[in-house]
Amino acid sequence: MTHQLSKTRFVLSILTAVLITGVTVTACAGEKKVTPPAPTPAGQLSFPAKEYANTEYGFSLKYPEEWQEQQATSPTTVFYVASPSRVPVLNVFVIEGATLADAFTAAAKDSGSDIEFVSQKESTLADGTPATEAKVKWKVRGMSADTFILGTKKGAKWFIVSITTVAMIYEYNEPFFSEIAHTLEFKAIPKAEPASTEAQPPTIPAAPAQLSFAAKEYSNTTYGFSIKYPKDWKEEPVSQPTTVLSARAPAVVPILNVLVIKGSTIEEAFVAAMKNRGSGIQFVSKKETALSDGTPATEAVVKWTVQDMPADSYVLGTYKSDKWFIVSITTVSTFAKYNEPLFSEIARTLEFK
Questions:
Q1: What residues have CB less than 8 Å from 58, skipping those under 6 apart?
Q2: Each residue's pLDDT tens digit, 101-150
Q3: How far are the Cα atoms of 43, 132, 134, 137, 159 from residue 112, in angstroms, in the given order?
Q4: Beta partners for 257?
Q5: Which of 330, 200, 190, 336 is CA-nearest to residue 255?
Q6: What sign has the CA pseudo-torsion 60, 63, 65, 69?
Q7: Contact between 62 and 49 (Cβ < 8 Å)
Q8: Whether pTM exceeds 0.85
Q9: How far apart are CA 182 and CA 161, in angstroms?
Q10: Residues 134, 123: contact at Cβ < 8 Å?
């Protein structure tokens, strides 16, 4: 398996290798198939939990402790977490709508298409609050997705817990998703005490050289440069002479590549490196910048398609001795959202010395 991955992973084809062979790996390891959970005592959850509490609307919800909170980008999403493998994804929506189907469709319309409620039934929360649960099938970024929904209406607003997965990554597990969603509870939640009005010592800003992430450093003696990247990202074997470093996050993406390649422009060099790995390469923005040591550089945002999935890349390149040195950090938003501040911070650790 390692030999197969090492042959197929080059730049963003690493994503293809993980998505295709990753299913085989997890199936062999017994992680992908959903097995019935062991009986759990009444009132006790089957998973170690964290609790989210919303003081504005007065509710709380428990979810698996290893799931990580994400930044919500929609005003109707009040809470958003994802498992370490990026799916399942849990969202809590607060939105007006005549029915649960109307409310969910309005909340999710910009995230996917072909939303179909395949089952729906009345239910209750643990405190007896009437609720509705449903299963939804739809398309997210061209992939078939399954969602468990639990919603309750209070006044004009629906409070909806949705847990979504893509079966090729993690199979739909309704008992587990229902267990999480049914921890939704409405209660009076004390608000945080107001901050003291007493004079506080001034906050000392972080030193400019301090990174926002714990870092590892890669050094290349052939070309005399180094770059830092998150220490939990895993370096991958490279099989192309134009790729000198490839590293990826634990959740498959983002993927970091350092390319050394000839080209008259950064567009020409990047396209030459990626032409067999994807299609529709489009530089949507580009501007001149500089590395920390003052070396002139160019940064850009690239949109393209990898294995029929929309991909976004942050690119930083500098031209030295007829070669482009390009740092590219690529993601597929289905798995990890595009984060330009972080990607730029990583790329700008590039240093020639």
A1: 186, 187, 188, 189
A2: 999 999 988 888 899 999 999 999 988 889 999 999 999 877 889 999 99
A3: 35, 22, 17, 10, 20
A4: 246, 328
A5: 330
A6: negative
A7: yes
A8: no
A9: 9
A10: no
**How far from chain centre, in Å, is Cα 50?**
20
Closest CA to 306 of 77, 20, 44, 25: 20
- The sign of the torsion formed by the CA atoms of 25, 27, 28, 29 equals positive
One-letter amino acid of 292: S
Structure tokens given for 84:
């370490």
The string of DSSP letters for 163-197 reads EEEETTTS---HHHHHHHHTT-EE---PPPPPPP-
pLDDT digits (tens, 9 = 90+) for 195-220: 555 554 544 433 446 899 999 999 99
Tokens 């969910």 locate to: 104
* Residue 288 confidence class, pLDDT cut points 50, 70, 90: very high
What are 17-71's pLDDT values in tens digits?
Answer: 433 223 333 333 334 444 444 555 556 899 999 999 999 999 999 999 999 888 7
CA distance 63 to 65: 6
Domains detected in the chain: 43-186 (3.40.1000.10), 212-352 (3.40.1000.10)
